[in-house]
Write a structure and sequence with these properties.
The complex is a heterodimer of chains A (about 250) and B (about 450). With about 250 residues, chain A is α/β, with parallel strands linked by helices. Chain A is about 45% helix and about 15% strand. The radius of gyration of chain A is 18 Å and the shape is globular. Chain B has a five-stranded antiparallel sheet. In chain B, helix 10 runs antiparallel to helix 11. Chain B has two domains: about 110 residues, Uridine Diphospho-n-acetylenolpyruvylglucosamine Reductase, domain 3; about 230 residues, Alpha-Beta Plaits (2-Layer Sandwich), CATH 3.30.70.120. In chain B, about 25% of the residues lie in helices and about 25% in strands. The chains are: A alpha/beta (about 250), B alpha+beta (about 450). The complex binds flavin-adenine dinucleotide and NADP nicotinamide-adenine-dinucleotide phosphate. The site of NADP nicotinamide-adenine-dinucleotide phosphate has 28 residues of chain A, from helix 1.
Chain lengths: ~250, ~450
Amino acid sequence: MQNAFGEPQNILVLGGTSDIGVAIARRLMAPSTKTVTLACRRPETAGLAVASLTRPGVVAEAVEFEATDESNHVGFVRALVDRTGDLDVVILAFGQLGDQERLENDPASAADLVRVNFASAASIALAVAAQMRKQGHGRLVVLSSVAGERVRKANFVYGSTKAGLDGFAQGLGDSLEGTGAGVLIVRPGFVHSSMTAGLEAAPFATTPDVVADAVASGLRTGRRIVWAPGILRWIFMILRHVPAPLWRRLPLG
Amino acid sequence: MAPDYRRISLSGWGRTSPSVSLLAEVPVEGLAEHLKDSSDRGVVVRGLGRSYGDAAQNAGGRVLTIADRAAEAVIDDVRGTVTVGAGVSLDELMRLIVPRGYFVPVTPGTRYVTVGGAIASDIHGKNHHVEGSFGNHVERMAILTASGEVVEVSPREHPDLFWATIGGMGLTGVVLDATFRLLRVETSRCTVDTIRCRDLDELITEMSTGDENSRYSVSWVDLLATGRKFGRSVLWRGDHARRSDLDPKSASDPLQYAPRHLLTVPPVVPGPGLVNAATSRIFNELWFRKEPDRQTGQIKSIPAFFHPLDSVGAWNRLYGRSGFVQYQFVVPFGHEDVFRRIIERIVASRLASPLVVLKRFGASNEAPLSFPMPGWTLTVDMPAAAHEIAALSHSLDELVLSVGGRHYLAKDAHTSADVIRAGYPRLAEWRTTRDKWDPNGVFASDLARRLELVG
Ligand SMILES: Cc1cc2nc3c(=O)[nH]c(=O)nc-3n(C[C@H](O)[C@H](O)[C@H](O)COP(=O)(O)OP(=O)(O)OC[C@H]3O[C@@H](n4cnc5c(N)ncnc54)[C@H](O)[C@@H]3O)c2cc1C
Ligand SMILES: NC(=O)c1ccc[n+]([C@@H]2O[C@H](COP(=O)([O-])OP(=O)(O)OC[C@H]3O[C@@H](n4cnc5c(N)ncnc54)[C@H](OP(=O)(O)O)[C@@H]3O)[C@@H](O)[C@H]2O)c1
């Protein structure tokens, strides 16, 4: 259960080695937190992440989770709930950025990326939502992106998966109205993380900790959407309406 | 699932941590039926939802309210007791008994609690230092246990279940009805003495030396005042007025009692609510100044003395959408230094609303989860949305535990299993009794899950 300050007992990060996901989990941890579960395709690579979440009285561990193994999603959720109890906060953080040029040259790899970021995400989100509906409470945090707010040519495969996921998450949130469960959509801009390592930073680049702060306050105040940094909300309000010829030429990486 | 269940979002009086349960109002005879096949999320009884946190809600499971009638209460004039259904409120009960010359043995700061809720939280009032908590006055109860069987309990019959149910937060069984001792009163008025104290030391000294001679004693502290005014406070002591205390007009109808609602806060209060440091500061200044330095023998009605907040309906809405938490703890006597440090931290945070109660507790009773213990208790409301409130609360928790104090489950919305385990050394004993009477975990609540009281 979450307490009056929104502090969770159980936290699950899907994509457990995600820099942003782990930062959010760390930020949400409180004296009442009992378990933090990092769901990773290669748990053996999560040593550092687990160490960063280790506290007295908290069970932090990495478990195996392959996002594209959709037939296993319901079973994965059930097994976790049996072991740790209700899902209080679940952070859907897995995703791949891909290399746009390579994706364009290899359509099958584009399909793979779309699957992970959208199809697999939809599947696990539905499995989590079903459990939260049953338990009458819980928050699903979905990592969308400003890249989906208005898709750019520079990363349109990735951007379109985020556009799809964002719309999916909005609809899922609406469908959970009145069930006690809810969805928080997070739209970060460029975040310094392993996903963007080596890339040139975009304007208003930020850090996983800033995203984590935005999520924490969004959860406490019951928001449906948060932006990180917050100013991007206003910038994209304008960018959404920029005429296409100009949009194509904007230097947005 | 019976067709009369509604899916509904429930929260406590503080309006934090809402969750969705299946709710039904059930007559006493039908209760056992509703405990059966209650699914793995279990069932809990809800009274009037006046506990502040998540005690009377059960996410994903069932919540039952009991349809009861005060008119069926039986008063034994020889023994001075009443036997009443647990779903009856103290408000309804008092309308029945006060005109007949009785008062409830313990009343909280609101009349809108049920007898079941009073027992399950083992509530305390302004008379705790001399007369103990509600459970001290209960002679017997009928409890519907998890097996569907009704068990008669008293301090002699199944004392384990009797005491585990007092303060047991609805997790040992459903109290169906109870018999408890009443207080005989000559009038429906109170005589009240008021003492204004300049600072905390003055208040502590005054209460430590003068409380024993009064049945009722309680104080208010200005938790926004700093510097020389730190701890400025008002202490009220009182008792039920005798007929001879009343003026001739009142004395002609000494037991007249008909409290009314004056107004109700509308459901929609602007976003952040109306309670903030600025409005609270003004309120405190006026509140402190309206009291005389020292006054004795003032006559007040029962609602004015015991339940002033009840004249405004749904005042909890004033805090806005995010709600508020009521921080209540007790620290044992001898640790006034830590008590003071806690108050200093609250003052420094500037988060306190004007609703503050400071009280001196007397002896504990035998119930393993009963909150009161000899010591000082402070109750303060704070907005849940405040940024610093989590850090403040956790730091206060540590101070409270460091001297063997504890937190009140009926108010709690933020502590953790560890904090409660440390504060209630007899929790394990309570759990043994609970597991004996409810081996399959039929009774469950959000509070129980959050604080790992069961399971
Ligand atoms: C303005 C205000 C002032 C207050 N002042 C005080 C005070 O001075 N002192 C004090 O001690 N408390 C005080 N309280 C707290 C209040 O007295 C308790 O929370 C009380 O338990 C509320 O009763 P309820 O009927 O609303 O119960 P609920 O809040 O609905 O439920 C409380 C608990 O009782 C259990 N319960 C209810 N009925 C039954 C039953 N039939 N059988 C078994 N379990 C049952 C529930 O499961 C739950 O765990 C105050 C509350 C308010 C809002
Ligand atoms: N960084 C940014 O600028 C930015 C901006 C906006 C939105 N986001 C979104 O935020 C989320 C987290 O990003 P991040 O920056 O933290 O990136 P990250 O550190 O690269 O994390 C991505 C995570 O996804 C996991 N993953 C990828 N494919 C998977 C699969 N098939 N099954 C299971 N897990 C898989 C990765 O696991 P491995 O460790 O095994 O690869 C990794 O844990 C992503 O959804 C991303 O799209 C990021």
